[in-house]
Amino acid sequence: MHFGPIHIMIFRFLLIALLFASCSQNEKETIHSGVDYAEILSITEGDGYYQVDIHNPWMPGKFLQRLILIDGNTSEALPDGQQVRIPLSRSLVMTTVHCSLLEELGCLDNISSVCDAPYINSSTLKDRIATGRVADCGNSVSPSIEKIITVRPDAILMSPYEYNDLTKLDNLNIPIIMCADYMETTPLGRAEWIKFYALLFGAKEKGDSIFSEVAASYNSMKSKVSAVTSRPLVLSEKCMGSQWYVPGPKSTFARMYLDAGADSPFPDRHSRKGSLCMSPEQVLHDAQKADVWLLKSDADITLQSLAAERNIYTQFQPYKTRNVWCCNTMTTAFYEKVPFHPDLLLADLIRIFHPEVAVPGENVFYFKAR
Cβ distance 67 to 87 under 8 Å? Predict the structure, then answer.
């Protein structure tokens, strides 16, 4: 977000931290219509339209949004919901991760405007912003309403939060698409939203194909470590000020570690689906004897720089055994790729946790600290 580095870090932690409570079995039977892994998304095809239900991750049993995507003429009476004519051709995309996905889908021409332009990695999209072909509407927390009115997009794609104030955007009478994929509880659940975004932009077949390949790759690698007998304990991240955010035992990242043949060192008393906010002393108590340490940063990290930053880091076993692995988010496409290609991260993790298991290729995100 273009409103200060600390806010960017907080936003990214929120993407990891905010995960919703599970629904009842009857609700899940409804929610899973048209999808196999996603828990808060359902897609139902009608005559000339699709009904897309996005369930409220903060209020189980309620809808966050119901969209009626109209892609042709229909003789049926349309269900109640926000009507959106597809494919979208002049969308405002307020999230950089979805800009990257649309480029992969071949739909950059369908983007008329963006937010958080300084954080977009696509060179093509950057050039279009620089030349004015794509409008820059400011940062996603407080976008320029005047610029949006000028551009007049046919839809706005944005990430929802529990206390979003959408009054100003609602008054524009432009359909708002709630990109709630980050609230899914499994890696493939989030990745399956590719089907929805592809549907919005007229790339259904390509989106379905991409997800099928991702799911097959992920499940194939997961099966390779399903029977391992030795499961390393994984310490994650490092301090931000006086707080240390780590994946809770039931979070998406903990699920990824589990699928890669590893476990969380944090006890079940922290049984949560989001991140745990802990003190450094609490993390040391629970995870001092972890086997592997994974952390992300916007710069290269060495063992020496870790020791210089905080002496407590040197007390963790992975530091002593030099089993620290770092992801530089400025030189890798971690935030752009992992949400919809979790198989790439899973491959990295299996190579780190279980080098004895043959996983083709080389690491994409995590590299050993020197």
Answer: no
Closest C-alpha among 31, 110, 95 to residue 66 = 31
pTM of the predicted structure, to 2 decimals: 0.87
> What tens digit of pLDDT does each residue of 281-311 get?
999 999 999 999 999 999 999 999 999 999 9
- DSSP per residue over 309-330, as a string? H-GGGGGSHHHHTT-EEEEETT
pLDDT for 21-65, tens place per residue?
333 333 333 344 679 999 999 999 999 999 999 999 888 889 999
Question: Looking at residue 360, what DSSP letter applies?
Answer: -
- Bond preceding residue 87 cis, omega within 30 of 0: yes
Biggest CA–CA distance in the chain, Å, is 69
Give the span between the Cα atoms of 234 and 54, in whole angstroms: 33
Contact of 128 with 169, CB cutoff 8 Å? no
Residue 347, phi then psi, degrees to nearest 5: -60, -45
Q: How far apart are CA 108 and CA 125, in angstroms?
A: 7
Q: Which of 143, 140, 57 is nearest to 99 (CA)?
A: 140
Positive or negative CA dihedral for 151, 153, 158, 161?
A: positive
Residue position matching structure tokens 């509880």? 185
Please choose, from the candidates 237, 294, 289, the residue with its C-alpha nearest in 3D space to the C-alpha of residue 260: 294
CA–CA dist 155, 71 (Å, integer): 15
